[in-house]
């Protein structure tokens, strides 16, 4: 989404030299802190020397910086009032409505955006996420099919489609979709997280281990995959391997109480008995699009994967009766 706005901004640079610096800082083309970029956006919207296209773009940027859906919607209302024929603004506002579970208005905005840009795979994708959140799987899959046809190299589209198949217990279809995605982008870590989940559902421990090992190789400093593999080794009665993963986790987060306690419990185990059933993974991001999972105030010029947002994921461990918080990124 950032890329689309940057292209627009590059096409019509601001006509006043005094506004150029603020506009570039606002859109992330010049280096600055998030606070400086936000301040620059506010200056752009308050300066009469800039045209309405640039002011609308600044309102759009302010909406992207916001972690408050209602406030973002207010900024996008201003952008749309100034530039009602810009499809991206309807996409943004529709997404914010979906965060508020105002799905009727979200879908109405997506329709307006698609009327202006019928081949926008981004709008189709965000609408698919909204349908997914509503439990409208057939409509979500239809939009994802169109999005993939329009942008076959976008890895996230394959991943979300696989997640829907998995929710429908269509594991063969999920694995096939992930294989297609991996062929497009072999180093996309989410594919292997999703694949591990499919194999876990199938009871295929070897497949799950291979997928988690690949995930860890791609994201060696993220705790999420390492912890899932540690749980798998516990379930399989392989305490030495689980302890090795807890050692890695403690190197990443030395103060994590659960890691220390779990490692100590494994050292005391006799015979390597399994520690409990497989964990239930709770993803706090839910069905939110990847763009919204970015860290608050991330510079707008960065792509989603470049921003490497750090989130807190929670994993419930039935055998231990606890929910573990870990640092992870999607």
Helix content: 55-70%
Q: Report the average pLDDT across residues.
A: 82
Low-confidence stretches: 1-15, 272-279, 281-310
Q: What pattern of helices and strands is seen along the backbone? A: HHHHHHHHHHHHHHHHEHEE
Q: What proportion strand?
A: 5-15%
Which class of secondary structure composition applies to the elements? Answer: mainly alpha
Say what the CATH topology of the domain at 153-218 is. Answer: Serine Threonine Protein Phosphatase 5, Tetratricopeptide repeat
Largest sheet: 3 strands, antiparallel
Tell me the name of the CATH homologous superfamily of the domain at 153-218. Tetratricopeptide repeat domain
Major β-sheet strand ordering: 1-2-3
* CATH class descriptor of the domain at 153-218: Mainly Alpha
CATH architecture of the domain at 153-218: Alpha Horseshoe
Radius of gyration: 22 Å
By DSSP (H or I, 4+ residues per run), the number of helices equals 17
Q: Care to count the β-strands?
A: 3
> What spatial form do the alpha-carbon principal axes imply?
globular
First-last Cα distance: 17 Å
């Amino acid at each position: 989404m950032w890329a689309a706005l940057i292209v627009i901004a590059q096409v019509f640079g601001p006509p006043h030299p005094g506004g150029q610096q603020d506009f570039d800082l606002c859109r992330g083309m010049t280096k600055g802190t998030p606070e400086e970029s936000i301040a620059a956006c506010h200056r752009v919207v308050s300066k009469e020397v800039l045209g309405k296209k640039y002011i609308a773009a600044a309102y759009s940027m302010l909406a992207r910086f916001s972690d408050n859906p209602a406030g973002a919607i207010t900024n996008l209302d201003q952008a749309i009032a100034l530039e009602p024929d810009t499809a991206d603004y309807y996409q943004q506002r529709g997404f914010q409505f979906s965060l508020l579970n105002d799905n009727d208005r979200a879908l109405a905005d997506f329709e307006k955006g698609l009327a202006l840009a019928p081949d926008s795979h981004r709008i189709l994708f965000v609408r698919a996420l909204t349908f997914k959140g509503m439990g409208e799987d057939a409509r979500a899959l239809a939009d994802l099919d169109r999005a993939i046809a329009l942008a076959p190299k976008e890895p996230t589209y394959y991943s979300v489609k696989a997640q829907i198949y998995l929710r429908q217990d269509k594991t063969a279809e999920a694995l096939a979709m992930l294989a297609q995605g991996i062929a497009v982008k072999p180093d996309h870590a989410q594919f292997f997280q999703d694949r591990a989940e499919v194999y876990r559902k199938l009871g295929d421990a070897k497949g799950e281990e291979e997928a988690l090992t690949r995930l860890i190789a791609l994201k060696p400093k993220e705790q999420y995959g390492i912890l899932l593999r540690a749980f798998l080794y516990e379930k399989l009665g392989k305490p030495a391997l689980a302890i090795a993963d807890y050692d890695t986790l403690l190197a990443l987060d030395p103060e994590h109480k659960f890691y220390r306690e779990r490692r100590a419990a494994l050292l005391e185990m006799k015979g390597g008995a399994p520690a409990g059933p497989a964990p239930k993974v709770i993803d706090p991001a839910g069905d939110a699009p990847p763009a919204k999972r970015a860290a608050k105030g991330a510079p707008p010029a960065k792509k989603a994967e470049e921003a490497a947002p750090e989130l807190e994921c929670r994993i419930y461990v039935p055998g231990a009766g606890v929910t573990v918080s870990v640092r992870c990124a999607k």
